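Researcher: Let's run the pair from yesterday's discussion. Sequence first, then tokens, for each.
Model: Starting with the first of the pair.
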Amino acid sequence: MDTQTFTESSLLLSSNTPRTFFISNSLAGTISFLLSGKQLKRSLNAFQAFFFVVGILMGSGLFVSPSLVAKETSSMGLALIAWIVCGIICLFGALCFCELASAIEKSGGEYIFIKEIYGDIGGFITIWAQMFIIYPTSFALLAETAAGYSISPFYDLNTDTGFWIMKSVAVFMMCISFTVNCVSLSFVSKTQIIFTLIQTLTILFIVALGIWKASVGHIQNYVSMFTNTKAFDPKDLGVAFYNSLWAYDGWGYICILTEEIKNPSRNLPLSVMTGIPFVIVCYVLVNLAFMSCLSHTEIANSPYIATAFVNKVLGHNAAIVVSVAAAISCFGSNNACLCVVARSLLSASREGHLPQPLSYIHKKRLTPIPALFLEFVLSIIWILSVRSGLQTFVMFFSFAVWLTYGMALFGVVVLRLRQPDLPRPFKVWIANPIFMSLVSLYLIIAPFAKKPIESGICLLLMLSAVPIYYIFVLKHDCLPKFIIAAKERCYSMLKRHFNLVPCIFVCDEVNGDFHGNGVSDTKL
């Protein structure tokens, strides 16, 4: 780190030092930390960011959610409406996040937005929910979907043998994702282009089959797509939206990579405004393709819908090929998600809300290995502990994620009122965040009424962050000295044996354009 950069960091540090998690506060230790640290590298251009957006969104949701959405709607016509509406909702939400990312140029996504807007306690509850519920359940669902597609042509997943083989394959896939992400961000971004191309080719193949079947007269399901349509039950609609919105989820993840995107004020919204509409079109076309041969009931009862569709059109051998392609697609989405969310934990650690080692990166590879490892372990725990199916993962994930999304989206309004003169290189119409805040409120209340047990458990897990915050953040100085000493020895050992260094975040203003306008770490 050069002298000028260190001086800027020190000045920012003196005026805005965040609370620390389980640590002491001394200027000498802070200076030592800064001198030993490294920054994340801005290596993603708009093209690569587009592939991250598409790769994250167009994963297992494309191959599982059609079944889950169909179960909660009375006709395929309503299911298609749900897909379109949910895609637009995600686009609006992502644009709100782009404004927040342009105003708060720090990695961390909704965690850092909520912390900066509402304070430490809001940020801590958010990262707690993300670390233990949102991220690992998402990874578990992606890995299980990939595993299910890869073995469904050969094993009956309803038997104990098929079930545990699927679980074992899911764990193995998580191991591969963890290893790949430890290599480098550049390596992940290059592999992500390959995975996204496979996803796109799989979609094009399915859409082509649908067009072919429709051209030879298979149009009955289109003609009757609104047959038996019933009035919306608000509770059922909320669950249906959960299932569809989960397929689109990831629209906020790209903001976590703010520090690693070149010219984020331009490339971030550009990747969102091109990537999400592309995914909406793909999802609608794929659902229309499924309808060419499968009825509403068949779609609702086919958890591995792509395999069922191709098997009915071309036979078992072709279904095996598509199952492999679907598995690769889901794995690619899992790979991209793991890459992105590890940066969120890193950001929370730098802000003092998580243990210091989660802000360490490899000295040469510049990858957040400790944060990656933690999410890898938690994901495996969720994979092995949940036996009740994919819908349980979706409910836990969606309830928690829309609580945090809602807080961040309303934060756009709060920030406009509190800091109207704050520089915002990208800005949305104020009606957008107001509308999205109301949508988030509905998506929290309606499913809670439909599935109170799952939602209640999720809420309790999130609220458990409050005593943890009080003990380990607010009152960390009261902890016994031997615990603090043991912690310091453990941190030192991790850095020494695994070639890790702290990841810092410094102010680097160039011609009035901030390429990261936060404070450096204060971990000792």
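Model: Moving on to the second of the pair.
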Amino acid sequence: MLVAIAVGGVAGLLAIVQGVLAQTLQHLLYGLPPALRLSGVPALSPIQLALLPMGGLCLVLFKLASRARRRSLVDAVEANALHGGRMSAADSLVISGQTLISNGFGASVGLEAAYAQIGGAIASLVGGWLSLRRGDVRTLVGAGAGAAIAATFGAPLVGAFYAFEIVIGAYTPAAIAPVAAASLAGAQVAQRLGLVPYLVVVTPGPAILTTGYLLYAGLGACCAVIGIAIMRAVAMVEARSRAWLPHWARPVAGGLLLIPIAMLSPQVLSAGHSALHADLPASAPLMFIATIIVAKSLASIISLGFGFRGGLFFASLFLGTLVGHLYADFAGLIAGKPILDPGNAAMVGMAGLAAAIVGGPMTVAMLVLGATGNFSLTGAVLAASLVSSTIVRETFGYSFSTWRLHLRGETIKSARDVGWVRTLTAGRMMRRDIATIAAATTVAEFRRRFPLGATSRVALLDERQRYAGIVTPAAVYAEGVDEAAAVAGLAHAADIALSPEMHIGEIMALLDRAQTDELVVLDKEGGVLGVISENFVSRRYADELEKSQRELFGEA
């Protein structure tokens, strides 16, 4: 608890520092008034618009400066899912720097990824210094990331549920206390320093009736469709830009493509804080709202698809308010009279789209509750968020963070700990005491060397001492076998084997596909290293799964 509180306070402080740095960079570059953010300016001059491709160039130079880190950078979600919460401080500084440059120069991305990254990294480092268990490190990483989010939104519940839903991947009794304590600490640090929360308190609208819940469930379904479209579009644009442009030209080209969109409306730039606060209480024409939705979506897709780094959390909040406004206006046109409060619809849309893209329905529900204090509205928000997240999960299967990991070849769909599977490799689990014999050996010679009951299997080797199959003595001792024949004729699984680095999931799949009880493990030259049986693998998997569940619920 004490460690979590300390980590939460530091994470909140570092999140504030990053926000101040990005906002200061925007003010210096664009000459903004002290109380105004980039997305709230009425218009930008051609010289100011030229800063967008310049930002892309600066990002390229920053990437070149950190080019030694060629491997993929690990974020908090991937660290908790695959690496037991272990995060690299250098990786986290690179991610933070790339996000600050992207946001500071006006790309349509948020800073939330950088906040969670630094908060999680601090927690991971502390967990390593204290030699904490794997499960405790994962909890602490979630607490650090959640505390950073709690500080920026000024809402401890938002940070806590962000930790549970996004970074830890489960609500667990053992994690409640440290995560809540860290989120409270992060929010308190922000409050003591006078930080203005990302989402200011909104005047609550009228109470929601039963009909309203049904209509808002439809809004959640619309948000799911829009969220899936945005996530797929980012992947498609990223794939095309990688195919058509060298890596150093992608951010510059992205900055150039952002210029005409920013000329249409500067609201599409940066995360959209000022634009959100201006649009929430506003009543704008349908065509204007629809235009901003398309423009902001396109700006975010281009920014992320062309190599700028950042998140879609706040962008989804901003887009969701516009979708909610548009939905309420359309519902009124169809009914012939206003049937949904635009302010309520904006908050429900904000939560529905954020739940679709970020993947945390309770996180956004607590965000709305903290901003409005309206429990009736929060109920509608929760209903729409659950509809949205359920549709996304059943038809698409990923949040934005896990979708990006999927495109890299990972198979995770949440931050739930599956990294232990990768630690159980064939090289670690195999038995090395496997008997071998030449494949050309006769059945009679085999029977002389291996009496029935001496061993359960024998690996065959060819003339170059490479693996040539497995023979079970029971098959050799069966009636009717020609004693003069080569034992190789009784071998099975000659063309199927394991490599030492294969993990237990791959081993079980290969055993099932081969329909055999055991497989040998080979080195790169085809030499036999050991053997693994299906019974042992199944038992080891069950034991490790039970251990993982005990750690998850704090019983280890």
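Researcher: Give me one sentence on the second I can quote.
Model: The longest strand covers residues 528-533.
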